[in-house]
What we know:
The protein is mainly α and 187 residues long. The longest helix is centred in the N-terminal third of the chain and has 41 residues, at 40-80. Among the domains are: 48-83; 100-167. Helices cover 51% and strands 5% of the residues. The chain has helices spanning 20-25, 40-80, 83-86, 90-119, 136-150; strands at 122-126, 129-132. Strands 1-2 form a two-stranded antiparallel ribbon. The chain is flat, with a radius of gyration of 30 Å. The relative contact order is 0.03.
Amino acid sequence: MEKNTLNESVWSGFTNIYSLSKTLRFELRPVGKDGKRLSPEDAKKLFSKIIEQDKKIKGAYVALKPILDKIHEQVINESLNSEEVKKINFSEYYGAYKQKKELKSREDALRTEFSRFILSHGRRLQYSVYEINNSKRILELVEIEIKDRFEKRFDQGDNVLIFKITNEKHIIRYGYAKNEETDLVMY
């Protein structure tokens, strides 16, 4: 597989193809079997046929649903009462399910604890993006705490990245973030 360069990514064929005004003008236009655009009258007839067909399908569904539900219930009951199913030891499956549920609970607790720890030293910018108060001493303490308290509890499904930004002049801010570095003036 060929490596993508900085200017070319897997999305380059889908992005920045059209100007915004062109993108906003795209619309769905009904066409006939010959591929030509339908007149407003023909389009209206076609849509009314589609709506009528959808109403028939909905009616059939409403009429058949109770019957299909009953058949489904019978199949399930017959399956669960079969001799083959009675031979299955479901306790193993239940044990695995319970183990997985407990693991998820521990992972959620770890993430909550870690989030609270980070919030005690900074603030949340986005769902999983935090900004830590910019002090060399605080950053060192946070790194030590992560290493001592959390690192051994993280697994391959966890990602923690620390970006040390030493020169604020290199930070380009957009949206709300650009307001955070300006003085507040009230009249």
